[in-house]
Amino acid sequence: MGAVLVAAALIRDREPAPDRTVGEVTRVGVADGGSIPDYLRAAATELAALPAAAEPGTWALVSFTGYLPPDRLAEVLGDVGVSLVVGRVPLPGRQTELVRMTAMRLPDDVAAAMAEVAARKEREAADQRARSAALTDADPDRAHLRRVYDSGAQVADAEARAYRAGCACVHAAVVRAAPAVLRDLATRAGVRAVDPAPEVSRLDRTVFTPPLPEQRDLARPPADDLLGPLSPSADPS
User: What is the pLDDT of residues 162-207, one digit of tens each?
Assistant: First the structure.
């Protein structure tokens, strides 16, 4: 009985362990301005050296050689456990938003997420058009701002249409698997790189920056023919 009371006292007096991950963000992928060839070589080297790990395995960022529609993802990834995908609408000469989509079930979750993004883009386009309509061209500064709003509405409309149609827009996925499975995944057609990230413990505190399929030299935001180079935005959902 005494032992039980002592144990109870110890449990009562123990303070909850602080969350040491608060405020910490892990970044996985290629850095802005970084060399794509160097990144691919580093990912391959780390993957080859990855030691055997206990279940449930190691997180990894998988980059594709091209943009895939939802119904092609299972074909490339097979039965590897997927948690989320990253995509953008590859509009020629226009910059589009990088979107992070939860994807536990393929292709259903990705299709549903695309529908949600399409609805958001439709609202965004309407907002941009309303902002443009409230301005006049009399003031040069306002004329430039109106041009920015009009451009934003055009891009958002195009993104909404693409996502509504289940576009070929996904260029990366975040998976979790044993090292042997990850190494096999790296050899599959359509896979450009598998970047293991054993340091990742929480996806909600991790930023993934996969290279775009069209990038061959440096990682940089796509140039917008109308507005010039811009910094990409990211959807945390």
Answer: 999 999 999 999 999 999 999 999 999 999 999 999 999 899 999 9
**What gap in Å lies between CA 217 and CA 111, rounded to an integer?**
31
Amino acid (one-letter) located at 203: L
pLDDT averaged over every residue in the chain: 85
Q: How large is the average pLDDT for residues 59-85?
A: 96
Exposed, middle or buried by CB within 10 Å (0-12, 13-18, 19+), for 228? exposed
What confidence score (pLDDT) does residue 142 get? 81
Tell me the three-class secondary structure of 12-35, residue by residue: HHCCCCCCCCCCCCEEEECCCCCE
pTM over the 0.85 mark: no
Distance CA(184)–CA(35), nearest Å, equals 25
Half-sphere exposure of 3 (CA within 13 A, CB side): 0
Q: How many CA atoms lie within 13 A of 208 on its CB side?
A: 32
Cis bond before residue 107 (omega within 30° of 0): yes
Q: Are 78 and 45 in contact (CB under 8 A)?
A: no
Tokens for 205, please give them: 């505190």
CA distance 176 to 77: 11
Which position has the higher pLDDT, 230 or 215? 215
